[in-house]
Amino acid sequence: VFSGRHRGGAPLRHTHRSSRRPFLLGAASLAMLPATRGAQAGGPAFAQRRLERWEDLKAALFDGRVTEHAAGGALELAVPRRAADAASVPVSVTILPHLASRLRALWLVVDENPAPLAVHAEPGPAAGGFRSFSTALRVDAHSLVHAVAELRDGRLLEVSSFVEASRGFSAPLNTDFHAARDGLGRMRLALPEGPPAAAAGRAVPVRLTVSHPNTTGMQFDHRGRAALPVSFLSRVEVRYRGAEALRIEAETSVSEDPVFGFTLAGEPGGELRVDAEDSDGRRFRCAWTLGATG
Questions:
Q1: What angle do CA 208, 258, 148 make, to 5 degrees?
Q2: Alpha helix (H) residue ranges in the chain
Q3: What is the pTM of this model?
Q4: For residue 203, pLDDT beyond 50
Q5: In three state form, how does the secondary structure of 274-291 look?
Q6: SS3 at position 209
Q7: C-alpha distances out from residue 258 to 66, 165, 248, 254, 283, Å
Q8: Taking Cα atoms as reference points, which of 162, 99, 166 lies closest to residue 133?
Q9: I need a labelling partner for 71 at 20 to 30 A (CA). Which of 10, 128, 186, 218 fits?
Q10: What does the DSSP assignment read for 224-291?
Q11: How many CB atoms lie within 10 A of CB 167?
């Protein structure tokens, strides 16, 4: 495990490949769509409203483009049926190689969250095919979680899973809010299978953690006796040996101290650099040199 801290004042370039329109929708228009929590979970009315909710979200997110079910295990989504902690629900996506090589972007959506669009991720050349992605999300009510893969030809493939959870957005932080702000931007990097190796001919898993309270505006500050302000990690860019590996845009649905798992490819001994920014405009940067032994 490697750890580091942001370099204060380091300027970052803003070279977004895709429009931020989806995340403007995630923070505003999507939250205004009617939710299904008024219906009894498991009943026919609930199932119908669930379907209508997803249709409304798809229309807003994808401009009415049709999504197809990902058949044959090409796209797999793993979410616990019943969450142990609604404020940190593990979510992982596995993508078969033939699909990963054609992937333009991956979307994670939680229907019943105040900010349904949780993550939009775009892999780069250094991702090594982007065969997996994982994170932890807040879930505010029993909900479907969707993974949507956008291919380079414009097709949208989707898979979904139901999770039982509640009040993930108002759950208290695991650490004191004021102490957490002192550690903003600290990063940890884990390479469970070691660094990339060109001779191996495959991508290796990477796990990145960024210290940030990721507050939703629905939590309470017991010290100040007031609601905590909305503040979350909104952008992460990962580069290896100068090549882009991953670009992430995120919302308040991502859990405290965001963690992202992805894949990395290339020759060993290169620099892995992470540039990040939160919703308040604070910027963080950390870099590691990945030697032949980590």
A1: 90
A2: 21-27, 29-32, 44-62, 97-100, 177-182
A3: 0.86
A4: yes
A5: EEEEECCCCEEEEEEECC
A6: strand
A7: 31, 19, 11, 6, 15
A8: 99
A9: 128
A10: TTEEPPPB-EEEEEEEETTEEEEEEEE-TTBPSS-EEEEEE-S-TTPEEEEEEEETTS-EEEEEEE--
A11: 13
